[in-house]
Design brief:
This protein has 675 residues and is of the alpha/beta class. It is flat. Residues 464-491 form a coiled coil.
């Protein structure tokens, strides 16, 4: 079907064929004619020639109906996969691949001919490709720096790269650009580059969906800190005639954005400058501005003072921080009907040095809405974030009130932000706590603009009902604890004792227990897909693994033993196919001398939590000792442990009931007499 020899990983084959990863492993195990791994791939991460995989799937009648749509994507993916094995810098790899695609779009045709040449000729062709971009305003770094990482690649990898990218047709270039960024900077390459968003990133989808509520098809759209340009260019579908402006201070990142915009065919101008100086870049007023500004960066005092002049706000009253400077600059740059959507740390809604700033913005009528977002909304920081929606000083809709919403407990805010904003503008119920505050309320509360503090239930009937319910729950918890304490008092003196102990390793050697550890169970060619349990019984891992046999899957009654002493030991009780994850092992009772619940309690005992001198003490089967008791004695002890656990849960419930009753009383005191 094709002679191109790009490389696919097993997960790529699964994605292309529309099946699970273990299914592909099953094909390998059961079909002798399945393509063999390439010579330069490793057993831990095998790669397979794209053309051979495509031919095999066709012969087996396993090609999905949409395989032609996926083929262009997979051709690019298979061309750049080998770069991952060389652990090149993700930003440098992105620029290398995007630059080659841009050179092809600009008419450079030397790549295809160089694909069959030697190493020197291929590198010469790469250099010529980037030289063709010198006067294109697409590169903010020297072409030579782009090619430095390519010089360390093997000839076969360079040949694969050229062979996969050279044939990409122009109408496939936008998808090719997205594929490059997702491969190097998306989920598979996030790590330290998590702040560089891609099309699939939550922040990209969030900002694009928010801006979609007001953007026009021919708007001037601007992102002063655009990163890869993904959020900015995501609006291209709904604003095909728009003029796009983007900027980033970092030269390599600005290069990625410029190449990305060019390959997607956007009418875009990308600059590389300080975000605040760059606000002068678009000569025309901005209709839609979206921005995820850098966090906590300082701004020069003179620059900051100049930015605050349009709002008539003394700059001396503010700390010159980047996120605040972005807000001020955005307002000044908007057209009369324009909107700015800016992500800002939540602390900017509450800290006292910004109180006058917030009051002045509301007084000028430029703050349309503020939405407080869930914790850890951004993947690369734990700093809480909020969305500010701003209007121009010249807006005909200016009012001295702000729509607020508290989305801290909401799921998938990127999916709902558009409907939230539309509902707030119509004054409708949006499914999360929301309301409107005016300037007087803001001033009365010391300039505090945090939605969560204003959106407390103040309905008097509801407050009383909550208080009465809390008292009923408190009475019930007290009585339940009394009943359990009485039963505990009768059974606490019936504890058995043991004269001998045995180690877990001895029990394994004697056949009383079977050891299940992930290293023994996982099979790269396994045909059974299993979910993995976490060290905490309430939090499972999201990863799946392949195991060779159903006998290797966990069954109810298996004992989950995390390696680290601090993690709890528990008895497995799930349905479905599960396996232990890394950092733990499982024990299965095979004889008739021990109860799983008894063994779990003993392994968790303090005398088995010996400090071995390491920072994180670990459990060892040779050191874990089990007192020898009869089954009847084990059952009696386990029953008593259950009583203790019930007492613990009831005591915790009582503590929560006490807190609820106290808070209910204080709410009645605070709000019942207010208007």
């Amino acid at each position: 079907m094709t002679t191109y020899q790009g490389q696919l990983a097993l997960k790529d084959i699964a994605e292309f064929a529309g099946v699970s990863r273990p299914t592909v492993s099953n094909w390998r195990a059961r079909n002798e004619d399945f393509p063999q791994p390439t010579q330069d791939s490793t057993p831990r991460r095998p790669f397979f020639d794209f053309s051979e995989v495509l031919d095999w799937l066709e012969k087996q009648d396993l090609l999905p109906e949409d395989w032609k749509d996926k083929a262009a994507y997979m051709a690019v993916r298979s061309a750049i996969n080998p770069l991952m094995a060389f652990r090149l810098d993700p930003v440098e790899s992105s620029i290398l691949c995007l630059g080659l695609l841009a050179a092809i779009k600009r008419g450079y045709n030397g790549l295809a001919a160089a694909g069959g040449s030697g190493s020197a000729e291929m590198l010469k062709a790469l250099k010529a490709a980037f030289d063709s971009l010198k006067d294109s305003r697409l590169l903010f770094i020297e072409p030579g720096k782009v090619l430095e990482p390519a010089e360390s690649l093997s000839p076969e990898v360079v040949r694969t790269l050229i062979g996969g990218l050279a044939p990409v047709e122009e109408d496939s270039l936008p998808q090719a650009a997205v594929t490059v960024l997702e491969t190097f900077l998306g989920k598979s390459g996030r790590s330290a580059f998590g702040s560089l968003s891609t099309d699939s990133s939550t922040v990209t989808q969030f900002l694009a969906n928010a801006a979609s509520t007001t953007v026009g098809k021919d708007d001037v759209i601007y992102d002063p800190t655009c990163g890869t340009g993904s959020a900015l260019l995501s609006l291209q579908k709904i604003a095909p005639e728009a003029t796009f402006y983007g900027n980033d201070l970092d030269a390599p990142t600005a290069t990625i954005a410029a190449l990305h915009a060019y390959l997607r065919g956007a009418n875009a101008t990308i600059t590389q400058d300080d975000a605040f100086e760059a606000f002068t870049a678009p000569e025309e007023a901005v209709d839609t501005l979206l921005c995820e500004p850098p966090l906590g960066e300082k701004v020069g005092k003179d620059t900051f003072a100049a930015l605050t002049i349009p709002l008539d706000l003394p700059s001396s009253s503010l700390m010159p921080r980047s996120e605040i400077a972005i807000l001020v600059s955005a307002i000044d740059k908007l057209s009369a009907n324009g909107r700015a959507y800016v992500l800002v740390p939540t602390q900017a809604l509450t800290v006292k040095p910004f109180a006058e700033f917030r009051q002045r913005l509301v007084a000028r009528g430029v703050v349309e809405a503020v939405i407080q977002l869930p914790p850890k909304f951004l993947t690369y920081t734990s700093v809480g974030m909020s969305l500010w929606v701003l209007r121009s000083l010249e807006s005909p809709e200016t009012t001295q009130s702000v729509a607020i919403a508290d989305a801290t407990d909401a799921d998938a805010p990127a999916d709902h932000i558009a409907s939230w904003l539309q509902g707030l503008r119509k004054g409708e119920d949006i499914g999360i706590p929301s309301g409107i505050i005016d300037l007087g309320t803001l001033v009365t509360n010391g300039g505090d603009l945090l939605p969560a503090r204003f959106l407390q239930a103040q309905d008097k009937g509801e407050l009383v009902e909550q208080y009465v319910t809390s008292l009923d729950e408190l009475d019930r918890s007290i009585q339940q604890l009394k009943d359990q304490v009485g039963h505990y008092s009768r059974s606490k003196n019936q504890i058995p004792t043991s004269k001998t102990t045995v180690t877990v390793r001895q029990l394994i050697q004697d056949g009383e227990l079977r050891l299940l550890r992930h290293l023994h169970l996982y099979d790269r060619d396994g045909t059974i897909e299993a979910k993995t349990v976490g060290s905490n019984p309430d939090r499972d891992r999201k990863e799946t693994v392949a195991i060779a046999s159903a006998e290797d899957a966990l069954v109810p009654g298996d004992i989950i033993v995390p390696d680290f002493v601090e993690a709890p030991v528990w008895v497995f009780d799930r349905e479905g196919t599960w396996a232990p994850s890394r950092g733990m092992f499982a024990l299965r009772v095979q004889g008739d001398k021990y109860r799983a619940e008894y063994l779990a309690e003993c392994i968790s005992a303090e005398y088995n939590s010996v400090d071995d001198g390491s920072r994180l003490p670990r459990r060892s089967t040779s050191q874990l000792r089990i007192p020898v008791l009869t089954l009847e004695e084990q059952d009696a002890l386990v029953d008593w442990f259950k009583e203790l656990r019930q007492l613990d849960q009831t005591a915790k419930g009582l503590s929560q009931a006490i807190d609820a009753a106290a808070n209910g009383a204080l709410n009645v005191v605070r709000f019942f007499g207010s208007n």
